[in-house]
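Progress report, Aim 2. The chain analyzed during this reporting quarter is listed below.
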Amino acid sequence: MIVWLNGAFGAGKTTAARELVDLIPGSTFFDPELVGDGLRMMLPSKRLEEATDYQELPSWRRLVVETGTAVLGEVGGTLVVPMTLLKQEYRDEIFGGFAARRIPLRHVLLHSEETILRQRIAAREEMPRDGTALESVRYWCLAHLAPYHQALPWLTADAHVVDTSALTPRQTAERIAEALRTGAGTCEIVQTPEPTAETVAAGVLLFDEQDRVLLVDPTYKPGWEFPGGVVEPGEPPARAGVREVAEEIGIELERVPGLLVVDWEPPSPPAFGGLRLLFDGGRLGSGSAGRLELPGAELRDWRFVSEREAAELLPAVRFNRLRWALRARERATVLNLEAGIPVG
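Predicted structure tokens for the chain:
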């Protein structure tokens, strides 16, 4: 199991985590900041200059999952992880990665009022001795107070909150340990196994009466998506799309959807790539749209969007696939793509 302690920079996550390790038998302290330190030594300076924070590096987010999984496999028990995550898409990617490896995770938010946070930042014992470095760390912590408050709505909805304003680190750890015993903070996101080879995936485009396309927001990975998923062995792809639509949003399609796009996605380690198919599920009437039901462990939101709006929500590779699917729908044809480019 992983216990992820979230909170503002300077909230006392690290000291509480070390106290918590003493309270949970067989637990291990795992600091993802060490992964960032390693990347700073390995990556070219030009790449590092492109990121203001190592959390922006896809390699950091991937390595946190891989390293945490490896450490847990080595020592077993519980990993206690103190790390601020303020971007929901980073939470999706990292927690989804652990879920895909069948590792249960508890998400705990250590919250304090801003005046308390500022006092703690000023008095942090683990600050560098060098005066310039000390001020730099203080500035970093203070600069992230506003993003923390902006993230509070999703953080408090996702995590078990422990108010540490009047607690010592030991008392905080005791509160966390007590909450864990009752199952608090359980992260019930979908657990989709990591592919071990190329896959075939079927997505279904559904439209409203204004011809806007339906997108859904997965809890387990960053970026929006179309309803759909991986085709199971022996399953017809179009039927897989129908099944996924029913499972994901509770809509039973009356007909098998027609094919719009076949796109070969090349392998890009650690991803294996494979065939990605998009089908035309047709228009949903206002009554059908009103019956959409989301499984909270898999999807958190849905919306109908224009093509322009989709460009803001979808990762580039998915938007490119959508763009060609819309052109195919307009021309009543099927397009064959390789790495997002029409061929033939």
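The longest strand covers residues 274-283. The chain has 13 helices and 13 strands. These observations will guide the mutagenesis work planned for the next reporting period.
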